[in-house]
Amino acid sequence: MTTLSKPMKKLSPVAQSAVDFYLAQAKALSARNDQPELVAFRQSVAERFAQQAFPSRRDEDWKYTPITGFLQTHYAVEGLAKIDEAAIKKLLPPFDVMHLVFIDGYFSERYSDDLSELPRGLSIEPVKDALDFSQGHCALMTHEQKIQDEPFGCLNSMLFDDGVLITLDPHCQVERPILCSFLQTQDGHANTIRNRVVLAHGAQLTLIQQHVSAQPELNAFDNVVSEIELAEHANLQQIVLQDLATQGAYFGLQMIDQAEKSVFNSVYVGLGAALSRHQNVLMMAAEHIESNQSSACLASGKQVMDTRTHTEHQAWWGVSRQLHKLVLDDQAVGVFNGMIKVHKGAQKTDGQMDNKNLLLSKTAQIDSKPQLEIYADDVKCSHGSASGQISEEQIFYLRARGINQTDARRLVTQAFLLEPLEAVSSPKTQAWLANKLTQKLNG
Hints:
The protein is an alpha/beta fold. It has helices at 13-31, 36-52, 68-72, 85-89, 127-130, 144-149, 151-159, 392-399, 405-418, 427-442, and strands at 98-103, 106-107, 122-126, 164-168, 178-184, 190-199, 204-213, 221-230, 235-243, 249-258, 263-270, 275-284, 290-299, 304-313, 319-328, 333-342, 350-359, 365-374, 380-388. The chain is globular and about 70 Å long. The N and C termini lie far apart (48 Å).
C-alpha cells in the first residue's frame, strides 16, 4: 500500500494506535485477496480513513458517545471459526423462517438453509461472491461516499469482506421471514459486514437481522453497513435485534432509499454490547411514501446505547412515524438523536417523532436531541422528548392490588418498553422480541 497521509486532526496516543492497527488489518486483508480492483478500492479507503480517523468528544455527533474503551481494544480480522449445530439451533425463533448464518462475519453455507430452493423471484447471494470491481467501482455501493463520511462506515468499507445481497423481483411477496443471524464466536474479533437489500416494484418481504454472541463473556465487534432500496409500491418490514455480549461493541449504519408509494417499517431492539450505535439515514424521495422507525433499548451496568435517525422528506404526501424508547439502569448512558428534514416543495408532509426515556437509577444518564428542519409551509410535523423515573402513583396502584415492590417496578418498566414493538406486524415475531426484552429485564 502507498504511504498514507497524516490525520487531518491531532489524535490521542490511544486513537492513533487504533488507527494504525486497523490500517494494518486492511493491508493484511488485501494481501489475502486476488482481485486487484478490490485491493485498489481498499487502498483508497485506507487513505481516507487515515486522514479522517476516529471521532472524539469534540465532534458534535459524538459528543455524548464515548468510544475510548472501544479504542483501547484492538479487534482483529481473523476469519471463520468453528461452531457446533447446537449453537446454531439456539438462534432460531419459535416460528418458520429462511435462515442465513454468518459466523464471525462470513457466510456459512453449511449452517444456512439451502439457497438453491428459494421462492419465485427471490435471490440471495453472499456479498463475497457478488463483489465485482471490474468497472472500477462496485454496483453494490450506491451510497459509498456518504458511508465513508461516517467514521465507522469508512472503517467498514476498508475491512468488509462478506455480507448478504437480497433482491426480490417485481410483484413477488415472500411469506416466510428471512432471518440473518450474525454470530460472534471469537474473542477480540472484528466482524465487518456489508449488506444490500433491493425490492422491485410491488415486492414485499420481512427481514430479521440478529447480532448475537456464542458466549456471554465474548468481547467482539460487529460493524455492519446496510443499503436498502425500495422501488414503487414495495413493502419491507425489518427487525434488527442487537443481543451481543455486554463486553463488545456494535455499530450499525443503514442507508435507505424509498420510491413512490413504498413502505418501510423498521424496528430496532438494543440489548447487548458495552458500546452500541444504530443509525438510519432515510431518503423519502417521491410522493406518498410511508415509513415507521421504532426502537426499544434496555441498558444496565455501564453500557452506552446510541440510537439515531435522519429522515428526509423530499416530495409531497410523505408520512413518517417514529417512536424511540430507552430504559437505563445503574450507570448506563443512553443517547438519542433524531432529525426530520422537510425539503422545500415537500408539501403535505406528516412527520412525527417521539422519544421517551425511563431512568431506573439516579446514576443513569440520557442525552436526547430531537430535531426538525422544515422548508415547506403546508406540513404537519412534531417532535418531542421526555425523560423521567417510574411514577410512584403507578407503583402504589399495583402495590394496592397485592403486587410486591420489585414485581410492580418490573411490570411498569416492561409495559413502557414494549410499546415500540407494536409496529411489528407479525404477532409471533412481536412475542419473540418481547420475550428477549423481558429476559434481560428479569435477569
